[in-house]
Amino acid sequence: MASATVASVSSASSSEPVSPTAGDYLLSVKSYLKIVMHALRYPHATVNGVLIAEKKGKTSKQIRIVDAIPLFHSGHGLAPMTEVALTQISEYCSKSSDLVIGGYYQVNDAFHEHPHPIPTVFAERIADKIFEANPDAVLFMISNFSLATSIDDITRLDSPFFMFQNIDGKWKLKSSSASSKGFALEAESAILELTNELVFKKSHHLNIIDFDSHLENVKDDWRNPKLNEVIEQFVKSN
Predict the structure, then answer these.
(1) Which pLDDT belongs to residue 183?
(2) Of 54, 118, 184, 222, most Cβ neighbours within 10 A?
(3) Which CATH superfamily is domain 23-237 in?
(4) Helix, coil or strand: residue 225
């Protein structure tokens, strides 16, 4: 991918809800936790990342987001570095017959965004590039305010997440209704327990590695294998 190509992509966002269908997408425990940890690690900054999904089967009605790859916490609008990251993540997915880049997430640096965070032009451009390769790709915007007020409440764990879909070339909010946001969380009790254990008690979010960190020190692995192992072991044991 050339930077000029990414820069030339244009799209428009809309907060007009798309007709809702609950549960089209399933966010795994690991993907949810890594997005939240990335946001909490850099609360002062806009952070973003890529969503990894299982390839959709011919009879599948739900797409499972299995992982989140943190990208940047500084210079999130630098197209060349983003393209380098996307290329490496694409190569990582190609090593598995079951994985594909399934979307993009972003947490803006604004604390109060009502009624929900709006995708920036950069977020739309990157989401557009992913959508070109995968028409099932989605864009998640995460509310900093809701993160601060809901991640310790099992009934509100999904409230910081707002899912946008590409409809006729525009990124539109699926729905802001809690009962029809277009996605579901996998194992909410495990999410709550792991958030309490890994974030509030052990502060593991301070060790999450994004592509920014990898560029500063190539020994830092943006795949976060150690964190993945901790999360996966916990999920298997419960």
Answers:
(1) 95
(2) 222
(3) Cytidine Deaminase, domain 2 (3.40.140.10)
(4) helix
Q: Is the dihedral of CA 24, 27, 223, 128 positive or negative?
A: positive
Q: 77 pLDDT band (50/70/90 cuts)?
A: low
CA separation, residue 187 to residues 74, 110, 137 (Å): 32, 29, 22
Question: 3-state DSSP call for residue 171?
Answer: strand
Amino acid found at 216: E
How far is 169 from 185, CA to CA, in rounded Å?
A: 27
pLDDT for residue 196 is more than 90: yes
For the chain, the helix, strand and coil percentages under 3-state DSSP, each to the nearest 5: 40, 20, 40
Mean pLDDT of 207-234: 93
CA pair distance 134, 193, nearest whole angstrom: 33
Measured CA distances, 195 to 69, 157, 211, 216 (Å): 18, 10, 23, 28
How far is CA 163 from each of CA 114, 182, 194, 238, rounded to the nearest angstrom? 15, 7, 23, 28
Q: What's 196's DSSP letter?
A: I
Q: Show the CA angle centred on residue 74, arms to residues 69 and 80, nearest 5°.
A: 75
User: Per residue in 155-191, pLDDT tens?
Assistant: 999 999 999 999 999 999 987 676 678 999 999 999 9
At 178, the amino acid letter reads A
